[in-house]
Amino acid sequence: MTDSSRRPLAVFDLDNTLADTAHRQHFLRTAPRDWEGFFAAAPEDPPIPDGVAMVLAAAEECEVVYLTGRPERCRADTLAWLASQALPRGRVYMRRDTDRRPARRTKLEILGRLARTRDIRVLVDDDELVCQDAERAGFSVVRANWTAPSAVLRSAQEREGRT
Description:
Blueprint: E1 9-12, H1 35-40, H2 49-58, E2 63-71, H3 75-84, E3 91-95, H4 103-115, E4 120-125, H5 128-136, E5 141-143, H6 151-160
Parallel strand pairs: 1-2, 1-4, 2-3, 4-5
Helix pairs in contact: 4-5
């Protein structure tokens, strides 16, 4: 049963929703992929204005939660990036370092847990498969389509479960 006395949640993805990863995607074009380099460059991600505007607007009525496919080992850099962008404070859910399931599975699992006790107003994500599965599960979704789709990132998300 959800607690309707608390503000609803607005759930935001990070990569290519709030943080522009274009400058570090070259690390994923190598064989093998350079995951350490990819994640080490995340603190330099420029913010995406459309995503930032949406999270700031959502924070007026909702509690903001960040739901990312980034591994837990990136938590310190992720929290520092969020603070440096003056984004609303909120819980950050990340995948376990050893979890290689596709983002659509890990994120839907977390959304389901959150929805057991809280109303979720919206999920904002750039991953079409995450969006489709979330909609099928009954969640309201906004597709963060403000960056160009990246085949290399999609492949990494689906085949290797790393982001």
